[in-house]
């Protein structure tokens, strides 16, 4: 399974009552495919406010995305949690509705050992035929998969990739020793170019809601050996990469992105508690940033 170089972690559109807005969800999928040139879409990841979605909503999102994308891009279901049995159940349901893969975050809060992390992912992978993308994001989970654990998991046939957010050093170690067919994505827009330089395959992006087509050009320029073009594009895009997450203070991904999409003429609604909308100062910052 090739999920492509650019994967977008999609926000979940809500209506005025904070129910899923299905019409707008369809428009957003079209926009990400047609205008932002994404190769795959993660549905119900953290950027999609997965902690506030019910399992029923998640499965319906998976089903809707598969049907609406209609093969134009791959659909990756966010089915990970810190309970193995729950993750197994949701991953099986995602497979039933036809998604192309599953993104599984490292178990958060309960802080399992490396052996516990390995057994967690192994149990889920063995319960499905879906291609699995691991997700290591220690800033959120308070636990980090080591290089050794990632490489051990990479030996399982249907674990095909990792979304790595620990460090460039760890990315380098993983890429250097990964088995053939196992690829690494960075999950940090701001290190897209450095990650490519150490062997990353691509990016699981949030900024691609706004500058996806330009990010696709950046990746292509680097891979084609046009390194100076890639550097120039990176310098041009970096203020957006940084600004979406620090506007003017660090904010959760969905908040800034949803406001930014509204500025682009695609309003996707608010956010569910405990998240709250952008402040007046943050909105002004984003207006100035995005013109």
TrEMBL record:
Name of the featured protein: 4-hydroxy-tetrahydrodipicolinate synthase
Annotated site residues (Part of a proton relay during catalysis) in this chain: 46, 109
Subcellular location: Cytoplasm
Function according to Swiss-Prot or TrEMBL: Catalyzes the condensation of (S)-aspartate-beta-semialdehyde [(S)-ASA] and pyruvate to 4-hydroxy-tetrahydrodipicolinate (HTPA).
SMART domains for this protein: DHDPS (SM01130)
Chief localisation class: cytoplasm
Enzyme Commission designation: 4.3.3.7
Catalytic activity reported: L-aspartate 4-semialdehyde + pyruvate = (2S,4S)-4-hydroxy-2,3,4,5-tetrahydrodipicolinate + H2O + H(+)
Cross-referenced InterPro entries: Aldolase_TIM, DapA, DapA-like, Schiff_base-form_aldolases_CS
Pathway annotation: Amino-acid biosynthesis; L-lysine biosynthesis via DAP pathway; (S)-tetrahydrodipicolinate from L-aspartate: step 3/4
UniProt-annotated binding residues for pyruvate: 47, 204
């Amino acid at each position: 399974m090739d999920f492509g170089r650019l994967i977008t972690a999609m926000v979940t559109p809500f209506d005025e009552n904070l129910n899923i807005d299905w019409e707008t969800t369809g428009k957003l999928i079209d926009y990400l495919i047609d205008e932002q040139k994404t190769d795959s879409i993660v549905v119900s990841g953290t950027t999609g406010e997965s902690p506030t979605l019910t399992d029923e909503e998640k499965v319906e999102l998976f089903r809707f995305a598969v049907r609406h994308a209609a093969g134009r891009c791959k659909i990756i279901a966010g089915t990970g949690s810190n309970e193995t049995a729950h993750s197994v159940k949701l991953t099986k349901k995602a497979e039933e509705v036809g998604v192309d893969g599953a993104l599984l975050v490292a178990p958060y809060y309960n802080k399992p050992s490396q052996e516990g992390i390995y057994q967690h992912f192994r149990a889920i992978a063995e319960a499905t035929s879906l291609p699995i993308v691991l997700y290591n994001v220690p800033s959120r989970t308070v636990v980090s998969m080591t290089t050794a654990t990632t490489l051990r998991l990479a030996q399982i046939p249907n674990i095909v990739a990792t979304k790595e957010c620990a460090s460039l050093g760890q990315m380098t170690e993983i890429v250097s020793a990964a088995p053939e067919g196992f690829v690494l994505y960075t999950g940090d827009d701001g290190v897209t170019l450095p990650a490519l330089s150490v062997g990353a395959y691509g990016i699981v992006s949030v900024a691609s809601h706004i500058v996806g087509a330009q990010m696709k050009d950046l990746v292509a320029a680097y891979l084609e050996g046009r390194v100076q073009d890639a550097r120039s594009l990176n310098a041009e895009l970096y203020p957006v990469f940084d600004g979406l997450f620090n506007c003017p203070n660090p904010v959760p991904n969905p908040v800034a992105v949803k406001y930014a999409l509204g500025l682009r003429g695609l309003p996707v609604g608010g956010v569910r508690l405990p998240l709250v909308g952008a402040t007046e100062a943050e909105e002004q910052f984003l207006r100035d940033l995005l013109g």
